[in-house]
Amino acid sequence: MRVMGVDPGLTRCGLSVVDSGPGRKVVPVAVTVVRTPLESDLALRLMAVADAAEAWMERHQPEAVAIERVFAQHNVSTAMGTAQAGGVIAVAAARRGIKVVFHTPSEVKAAVTGNGSADKAQVTAMVTRILGLDAPPKPADAADALALAICHSWRAPLIDRMAAAQAQAEEVKRRYEARLAQQRKVVRP
């Protein structure tokens, strides 16, 4: 499976692409960081992020886009910009029919390091090791984007199995309720 990992941000937005294979094999394809100038208008910055992400989707043809879910940050304006950048990328992927999945930072850290509270240095070290890189990806946004892609590559099979099990359970429930409704009709005079 080919996964595009996104560490969203307005000033720096990490984009990565990995290919995953059997087991936990993950191979890096590409990684970059999109930068937008602070002095530019918000709409223009969001457009620049969206344009870069769309170009990556076109070039690399991912089957899924894994975006970091923003849930809390100390600086509200930073959180807003991060969420907006993730949003425009999610829309760009959805328009192309690419599956979009959001992962929390703790999910990513747990998947990559085994510790949901790992620091950036630990995440970067494990990304470097998992992908067999000669040097740690820099800046941290690049490493985080790769970590998101790795996380989704490893979690996707479980997520898919859980969704299939849920759909199967709902179908069994629907059939059971239909059978009960039919039996009630038979019992009534």
Automatic annotation (TrEMBL):
Mg(2+) 2 binds at residue 68. Signal peptide: none annotated. Its main location: cytoplasm. The keyword Cytoplasm applies. One of its GO terms (cellular component) is Holliday junction resolvase complex. The keyword DNA damage applies. This is Crossover junction endodeoxyribonuclease RuvC. The gene is ruvC. Homodimer which binds Holliday junction (HJ) DNA. The HJ becomes 2-fold symmetrical on binding to RuvC with unstacked arms; it has a different conformation from HJ DNA in complex with RuvA. In the full resolvosome a probable DNA-RuvA(4)-RuvB(12)-RuvC(2) complex forms which resolves the HJ. It is found in: Cytoplasm. Gene3D superfamilies: Ribonuclease H-like superfamily/Ribonuclease H. Its EC number is 3.1.21.10.
